[in-house]
Structure formats: structure tokens, C-alpha cells
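so my prof wants the structure for this chain in the C-alpha cells format not the other one, which i didnt know existed until like an hour ago. anyway here's the sequence
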Amino acid sequence: PITGIPLIFLSYGGSSLLSALIGIGISLSIYVRRFEH
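here's what i got, hopefully its the right format
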């Protein structure tokens, strides 16, 4: 349920949203590195 994730972030606040975006960015960078190699 990807649609339910933003609701959880909004309920916690902006700090958790920022950390979540950082986590997504890290996971995306790892995903791209796997495709490059």
C-alpha cells in the first residue's frame, strides 16, 4: 500500500518525512548502482 505511506509521514510530522525522503534517496542510489554494474 504505497498510498498509505504518506499519510503516516504526515501524521508524524516534517522531520520524519525528511528522514524518509533521505532513506528513499539512498535506496534509489543503491538501485541505480546495481543497474550500472
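also thought this was worth mentioning. The chain has one domain: 10-36.
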